[in-house]
Automatic annotation (TrEMBL):
Record flagged with keyword Transmembrane helix: yes
Organism: Corallincola holothuriorum
A Gene Ontology cellular-component term: membrane
Record-stated family: Belongs to the bacterial sugar transferase family.
Single GO term (MF): phosphotransferase activity, for other substituted phosphate groups
Bacterial sugar transferase domain span: 282-464
Superkingdom, natural source: Bacteria
Membrane topology: Multi-pass membrane protein
Pfam families: Bac_transf
Compartments in which it is found: Membrane
Protein name stated in the entry: TIGR03013 family PEP-CTERM/XrtA system glycosyltransferase
Length: 470
């Protein structure tokens, strides 16, 4: 499922549109109610009951950015009603804080403090009610695309094995699988089999099929090309299994890739000069801004490391060789969070609850404070804010031998955060590296300015809710 607003079907797009409207409604109702609110009578009477277009736009834009930051438009969000309401509440608290800060600089663009306070409180109620009702609203969960899978072997079984949860199938319903000659052994239930002798056109008409997924293991002289063409003429979408998995999961199935798909599929385009210049301006500006606001945290972190371990000769900063753009090595800079002798026995995967981590290290790793010195790498042009996380050369050599297309992740600049960090939990093994590679290749293929902004905003969710990986 793609990270743009229309990812995984049009449901997320509809959510964004409707909830933008609800934010505007919340502010409008507060403005209309002002003449009857005694607490606001101290304001200038000329402003009561009136609001400029700039106030509405500012409130809606900041509100939507906060909702994005809380992960409420992540198509794979796995939260019950209480968790969704909590995120909405946190998003509105963030909205209030941002509006309060903005009002001190641009008061004409923002509503009055009492106005945006009441608007954010009302928005929590409106958005929460809408989210509770949205599963029953057409286009937001009640109606899913009806798909028919052509094939019942190894490729087709990925849908059964890897996409079996409700959240994975929120945008589609599998009507059945048609076994094809050449299919390998699988784990698909026989109950879902469709007789291969059934005319394809008749089946799609009878069962209202919206999309056919081509997932047979052997295609040469096996595909019913004429029937597929007739189905397409009748408005049925024909999709390759790789593109289907890419669309619905936000990753590329590396183990299923064949070279022609890489060559002919859209994406995997190098950045042009304009994009490179914009990236440099954005990364440099953000790095300088974060250094300006975070220098007290950086000094405090350095002091805490020195007090715990530095007086005995341990270093405060930790430099480690990583592989960057084009496969070129560079030294990443971090606050030291492990003991000085952590790698006496050679390079090791970092793991969850690592016993090599110091007491201060546990805290700074929890809140990602150990990553702050990497702003220096960003200013030097070795890293960006968004991109695949750089890996150590010892691991890169091994992974490149075992994982197909692993080196392709080095075709873009590594980043402080990335698509894999948003989509995959903490992991530190070759199996985890394969799963992260699927997301990294998806990022390489779909890399855009909008995607970078999306990832950067949702990184707030990773930090607040302690998700993702290092």
């Amino acid at each position: 499922m793609t990270p743009d607003l229309k990812s995984g079907g049009h449901g997320v797009f509809v959510l964004v549109v409707v909830e933008s409207f609800l934010l505007l409604v919340a502010l409008h109702l507060c403005v209309l109610a002002e003449p009857w609110l005694v607490t606001l009578h101290s304001q200038n009477s000329a402003t009561i009951g009136n609001a400029s277009a700039a106030e509405f736009i500012t409130f809606a834009v900041i509100g939507m950015l906060s909702l994005f930051a809380m992960g409420l438009y992540n198509p794979r969000l796995r939260e019950h009603s209480r968790g969704v309401l909590r995120r909405i509440g946190l998003a509105m608290i963030l909205t209030f804080g941002l509006l309060a800060a903005l009002s001190t600089v641009f008061p004409a663009l923002t509503p009055s403090p009492s106005r945006f306070l009441s608007a954010t409180l009302l928005a929590i109620g409106l958005l929460g009610l809408f989210r509770m009702l949205s599963p029953k609203i057409p286009g937001l969960g009640a109606f899913r695309r009806r798909i028919l899978v052509l094939g019942a072997g190894q490729r087709a079984s990925i849908i059964e094995k890897r996409m079996r949860r409700k959240v994975d199938r929120r945008n589609f319903f599998v009507c059945g699988y048609i076994p094809m000659q050449g299919d390998k052994e699988n784990e698909i239930s026989d109950q879902l089999y469709v007789d291969s002798k059934t005319p394809l056109v008749e089946y799609i008409a009878k069962h209202n099929i919206d999309e056919i997924i081509v997932a047979c293991d052997e295609r040469r002289q096996q595909l019913p090309v004429r029937e597929l063409f007739e189905c397409k003429l009748r408005g049925v979408e024909i999709t390759d299994i790789l593109s289907f998995i890419e669309r619905e999961t936000g990753q590329i199935a590396v183990n299923l890739i064949y070279p022609s798909w890489m060559i002919y599929s859209n994406g995997f385009k190098p950045a042009d000069n304009l994009r490179s210049q914009l990236d440099w301006i954005l990364n440099t500006s953000l790095a300088l801004l974060l250094v300006f606001f975070c220098w007290p945290l950086m000094i405090g972190t350095a002091l805490a490391i020195w007090l715990e371990d530095g007086r005995r000769g341990g270093s405060i900063l930790y430099r480690q060789e990583r592989i960057g753009l084009g496969g070129h090595p560079f030294n990443i800079i971090k606050f030291r969070s492990m003991r000085s002798d952590a790698e006496t026995n050679g390079a090791q995967w970092a793991k969850k609850d690592d016993d090599r981590v110091t007491k201060v290290g546990e805290i700074i790793r929890k809140y990602r404070l150990d990553e702050l010195p990497q702003l220096i790498n960003v200013l030097k042009g070795e890293m960006g804010f968004v991109g695949p996380r750089p890996e150590r050369p010892e691991f890169v050599d091994k992974l490149a031998e075992k994982l197909p297309y692993y080196s392709e992740r080095h075709s873009v600049k590594p980043g402080l955060t990335g698509w894999a960090q948003l989509c995959y939990p903490y992991g530190a093994s070759e199996e985890d590296a394969l799963e992260k590679l699927k997301y990294d290749l998806y990022y390489v293929k779909h890399r855009s300015f909008l995607l970078d902004i999306f990832i950067f905003i949702q990184t707030v969710e990773v930090v607040l809710f302690k998700k993702g990986a290092r």
